[in-house]
């Protein structure tokens, strides 16, 4: 979307944009991904407290316009910067269409990276009125004499003949060179296909397929437009790319890893008011973005391809005053985000938002990914080779789209990271836990389960580390860190997320002797009868299991067996109690109260392999159990 245009003009423009191509039906509810592996039962469970996610996490949220030399980090916190470029500013040679001057793009990417941000960009040929620093007519000078030009008297710009073989070849060669230079560049977060039509938005209204108004059609044929889409798909295999409409070029992008970009996000227009993002089933217009998705069966494209857009300029300053339901020209923003699954949005006027605005914060946290580690899994004491696992939930509307490296680490008591392990964990697998149903699906209810709390595990070699107390930590490497020391860190929505990018998973003692005792949290065990989990501030995981005995039991599974083992019970009781452990009687002295943790040990002979330990008391009450360790 351009910086400023009248609402009436824009409304007419959208209304007369060609309707979506026909499709038999919406795609319907997507099948759930494969369920993840279960956590390793031999590892102790360490719950982590959730917290609000950061509002300036990388590759999501709002993007402000690039202004050379301007401070990119003023206004509402953000991690993306949006930039336009005219093609004539890159293809500057009048005699050679294969000559490219990339300095204008390089300068923007370098300056943006210096602020720790990633860029989102588009290259255009026509931009009514220009941007102020970029030209209105950006047709390369090498087209002169080789490509017919077409006057657009409505917008006072010139369009090239997009179907001209010379122009098609030049554009495809440019796209190939563009990708060869920037595909996978850590400074570039998202790329809009651009090039075709007004503002590079793949429409030329009123010079479009509706020729009844006496104006010719200036758009490329679907076949030629599809050549450009295919060229972008071939040139950019790592950087996420987006196109305006799902029906552009006859839907040529729909079976490719190319997302969509709603440049008129969540606006309502006309009389009566109709949304230009939400489908007709939610009060949208026939030409609304999501109606086009439903018509082409592409409403689930977000699962693998990124979705972006621009919050309509007319509503940017006021949109969140009526969050989430909207009012007047502002449609239901929550529904718009949940059904488009948008990760990012151009929003120049976000610079005027207060950083503490709760409504804006709620919207930004919903956009894209919002990752929380709910549990870490590891042995409380370990040495040699040991396993560490985490379970990650996503409460955003979209996955994280890039294969950034997840690294485990150990911090010593002084807070210094003393060892790291790069894992093979793929955050792209952490899909949103729930997604919103389209009314058109007739699926019943507003929401449905989709993703899972994804479990990942890594084996860490602790050999050579001095015995002592450490903390397990976790971080995600932003590739921009290789370019800029100011690169934004991807941070989790957890209370133990640290400002240096590391997420605290919990303490561990590194010692000698076969990996140390294996720890098991009571709340992770299997309960029968009236046994119940209760909060416990003094307990290791913040929880305990009570109401044990008189028929109620607690079973720990995955316990390493193989002969005599020392089993240490961490428990709570205000009075002496007894229990049977695998049928063997154990006495539990009073600990001083139901909020005070004590410990007692017993020796059990356990069969080889993974086995179980069951706490019971058929004729009375047992103590509350926090956890056990087995050595």
**Approximately what portion of the residues adopt beta-strand conformation?**
25-35%
Cross-sheet strand order for the largest sheet: 12-9-8-7-4-3-2-13
Determine the N-to-C terminus distance: 64 Å
Major sheet, described briefly? 8 strands, parallel
Low-confidence stretches: 1-23
Helix content: 10-25%
Query: Total number of β-strand segments?
Result: 34
Q: Structural class, from secondary structure content?
A: alpha+beta
Number of helices: 7
Q: What would the principal axes of the Cα set say about the shape? A: elongated
Compute the average pLDDT: 93
Rounded to the nearest angstrom, the radius of gyration is 29 Å
Protein name: DUF4832 domain-containing protein
Keywords: Signal
Organism: Paractinoplanes pyxinae
Any chance you could write out the topology, listing elements then pairs?
Layout (H helix, E strand, L loop, with lengths): L6 H9 L28 E4 L13 E5 L14 E7 L16 H12 L3 E7 L24 E4 L4 E4 L4 H18 L5 E5 L29 H14 L4 E4 L14 E8 L2 E2 L4 E2 L13 H8 L11 E4 L21 H8 L3 E3 L11 H9 L4 E8 L2 E2 L2 E10 L11 E7 L4 E6 L11 E3 L10 E3 L4 E8 L6 E9 L26 E8 L7 E4 L4 E2 L4 E4 L7 E4 L7 E7 L2 E11 L3 E5 L2 E5 L4 E14 L3 E7 L7 E7 L1
Parallel strand pairs: 2-3, 2-13, 3-4, 4-7, 7-8, 8-9, 9-12, 15-23
Antiparallel strand pairs: 1-14, 5-6, 10-11, 14-16, 16-21, 17-18, 17-22, 19-20, 22-23, 24-34, 25-28, 26-27, 28-33, 29-32, 29-34, 30-31, 30-33
Helix pairs in contact: 3-4
């Amino acid at each position: 979307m351009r910086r400023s245009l009248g609402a009436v003009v824009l409304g007419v423009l959208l209304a007369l944009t060609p309707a979506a191509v026909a499709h038999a039906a919406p795609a319907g509810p997507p099948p759930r991904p494969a369920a993840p592996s279960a956590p390793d039962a031999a590892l102790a469970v360490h719950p982590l407290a959730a917290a609000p996610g950061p509002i300036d996490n990388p590759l999501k949220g709002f993007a402000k316009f690039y202004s050379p030399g301007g401070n990119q980090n003023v206004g509402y916190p953000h991690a993306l910067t949006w930039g336009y470029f005219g093609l004539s500013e890159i293809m500057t040679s009048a005699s050679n269409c294969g000559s490219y001057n990339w300095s204008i793009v390089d300068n923007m990417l370098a300056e943006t990276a210096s602020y720790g941000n990633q860029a989102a960009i588009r290259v255009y040929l026509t931009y009514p009125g220009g941007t102020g620093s970029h030209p209105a007519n950006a047709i390369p000078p090498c087209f002169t004499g080789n490509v017919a030009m077409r006057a657009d008297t409505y917008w006072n710009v010139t369009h090239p003949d997009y179907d001209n073989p010379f122009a098609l070849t030049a554009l495809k060669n440019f796209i190939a060179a563009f990708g060869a230079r920037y595909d996978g560049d850590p400074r570039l977060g998202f790329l809009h296909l651009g090039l075709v039509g007004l503002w590079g938005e793949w429409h030329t209204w009123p010079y479009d397929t509706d020729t009844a108004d006496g104006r010719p059609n200036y758009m490329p044929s679907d076949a030629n437009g599809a050549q450009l889409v295919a060229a972008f798909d071939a040139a950019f295999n790592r950087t996420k790319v987006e196109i305006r409409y799902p029906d552009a070029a006859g839907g040529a992008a729909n079976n490719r890893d190319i997302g969509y970009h709603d440049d008129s996000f969540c606006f309502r227009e006309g009389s009566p008011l109709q949304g230009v993002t939400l489908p007709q089933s939610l009060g949208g217009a026939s030409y609304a973005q999501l109606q086009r998705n439903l018509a082409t069966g592409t409403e689930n494209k977000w699962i693998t391809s990124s979705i972006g857009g621009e919050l309509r300029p007319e509503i940017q300053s006021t949109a969140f005053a009526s969050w989430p339901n909207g009012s007047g020209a502002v449609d239901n923003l929550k529904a718009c985000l949940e059904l488009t699954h948008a990760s990012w949005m151009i929003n120049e006027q976000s610079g005027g938002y207060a950083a503490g605005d709760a409504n804006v914060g709620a919207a930004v946290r919903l956009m894209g990914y919002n990752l929380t580690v709910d549990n870490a899994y590891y042995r409380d004491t370990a040495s040699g080779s040991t396993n560490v696992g985490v379970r990650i939930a996503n409460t955003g509307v979209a996955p994280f789209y890039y294969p950034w490296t997840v690294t485990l680490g150990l911090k010593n008591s002084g807070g210094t990271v003393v060892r790291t392990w790069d894992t093979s964990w793929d955050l792209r697998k952490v899909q949103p836990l729930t997604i919103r149903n389209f009314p058109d699906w007739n699926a019943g209810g507003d929401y449905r389960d989709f993703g899972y709390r994804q479990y990942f595990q890594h084996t860490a070699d602790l050999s050579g580390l001095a015995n002592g107390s450490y903390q397990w930590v976790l971080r995600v490497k932003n590739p921009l860190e290789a370019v800029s020391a100011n690169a934004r860190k991807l941070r989790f929505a957890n209370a133990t997320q640290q400002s240096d990018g590391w997420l605290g998973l919990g303490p561990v003692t590194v010692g000698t002797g076969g990996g140390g005792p294996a720890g098991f949290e009571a709340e992770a065990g299997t309960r029968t009868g009236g046994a119940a989990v209760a909060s416990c501030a003094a307990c290791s995981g913040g929880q305990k299991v009570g109401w044990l005995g008189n028929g109620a039991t607690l079973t720990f599974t995955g316990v390493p067996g193989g002969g005599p083992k020392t089993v240490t019970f961490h428990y709570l009781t205000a009075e002496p109690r007894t229990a049977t452990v695998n049928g063997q009687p154990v006495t539990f002295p009073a600990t001083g109260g139901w909020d005070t943790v004590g410990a007692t040990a017993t020796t059990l002979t356990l069969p080889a392999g993974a086995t179980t330990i069951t706490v019971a008391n058929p004729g009375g009450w047992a103590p509350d159990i926090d956890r056990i360790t087995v050595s």
